[in-house]
């Protein structure tokens, strides 16, 4: 990882990311995708499926194919400054990105063989849904957190206002990377992902590190989803600074952060050392193990 001190003056771009969950043999698992090594941002890192909001995500036809009303989805997102339609379009975006990046369709019915053939033939996303009379199922797509990239992003060349969602992966479908933007897919327990990161086996960026640390508190999908239903999405605006020649990213609740109220469990800052981001307390701090 190469740390940048570039200041980006453009406003953040709306984006949506999904933490796809399933119950494995030893508990909760989450899907990670490895970004292509040639990617401008986070090349070679393992990330959650996601991407920027497209203008077409707010098309009335697509919003009409959501299982819940735009008003209800807006209430779940807990961002009163948005319109109902804008909020609903973020749900469309996260489900579109989920389908494009790992092939999982979060719909009210499983896609047919003909749907898959039409998709492989190049039929556009909205037309696929309309032709096969499939609605997008928001029942198990829940707002989880909101990450706003700082003006000095450290690892990115752009700023994003990214809504992280939890979603239960459909059991009848198989996730697969697209071999274009991503080159590997990995179902893994949050604890194991953090251990593999600590031992240098995989690369993770700070939002993934902190999100996996949070997920590690939950034993199964039901527990994580229940937490999401009962709590408003956490707003995380990282504040980076340099200390003794080392980049530090602090989060709400840290003594250095402008917001004294915690947004996440676990460490409140990450230090860039050993060519990666680490918390004080090491791996134990990420796993919520007492010292």
Quick structural gist:
The chain has helices at 60-63, 70-77, 84-102, 113-120, 125-131, 190-198, 206-215, 221-230, 282-286; strands at 13-24, 27-35, 46-47, 50-52, 141-148, 160-168, 182-188, 234-236, 239-243, 246-250, 269-273, 276-278. With 291 residues, the chain is an alpha+beta fold.
Order of helices and strands: EEEEHHHHHEEEHHHEEEEEH
Taking the sheet with the most strands, its summary is: 8 strands, mixed
Distance between the termini: 28 Å
- Beta content comes to 15-25%
Please report the total strand number as a whole number. 12
Shape: globular
Please tell me the overall pLDDT: 92
- Number of helical stretches of at least 4 residues: 9
Q: Give me the CATH superfamily.
A: Nucleoside Triphosphate Pyrophosphohydrolase
- What would you say the CATH architecture is? Alpha-Beta Complex
Which secondary-structure class do the elements indicate?
alpha+beta
pLDDT below 50 for ≥5 consecutive residues: which ranges?
A: none
């Amino acid at each position: 990882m190469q740390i940048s001190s570039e200041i980006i003056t453009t406003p953040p771009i709306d984006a949506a990311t999904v933490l796809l969950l399933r119950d494995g043999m030893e508990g909760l698992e989450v899907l990670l995708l490895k970004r292509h090594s040639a990617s401008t941002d986070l090349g070679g890192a393992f990330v959650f499926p996601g991407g920027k909001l497209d203008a077409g995500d707010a098309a009335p036809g697509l919003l009409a194919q959501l299982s819940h009303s735009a008003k209800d989805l807006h209430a779940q997102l807990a961002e009163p400054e948005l319109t109902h339609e804008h909020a609903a379009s973020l749900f469309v975006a996260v489900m579109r990105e989920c389908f494009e990046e790992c092939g999982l369709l979060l719909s009210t019915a499983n896609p047919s063989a003909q749907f898959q053939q039409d998709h492989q033939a190049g039929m556009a996303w909205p037309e696929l849904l309309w032709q096969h009379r499939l609605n997008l199922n928001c029942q198990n797509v829940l707002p989880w957190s909101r990450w706003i990239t700082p003006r000095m992003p450290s690892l990115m060349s752009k700023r994003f206002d990214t809504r992280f969602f939890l979603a239960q992966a459909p059991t009848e479908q198989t996730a697969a990377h697209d071999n274009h933007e991503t080159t590997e897919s990995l179902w893994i327990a949050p604890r194991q992902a953090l251990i593999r990161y600590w031992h240098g086996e995989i690369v993770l960026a700070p939002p993934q590190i902190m999100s996996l640390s949070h997920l590690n508190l939950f034993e199964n999908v039901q527990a994580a989803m229940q937490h999401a239903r009962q709590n408003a999405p956490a707003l995380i605006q990282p504040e980076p600074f340099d200390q003794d020649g080392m980049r530090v990213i602090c989060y709400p609740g840290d003594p250095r952060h402008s917001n004294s109220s915690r947004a996440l469990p676990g460490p409140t800052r990450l230090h860039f050392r050993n060519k990666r981001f680490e918390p004080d307390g090491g791996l134990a701090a990420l796993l919520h193990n007492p010292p």
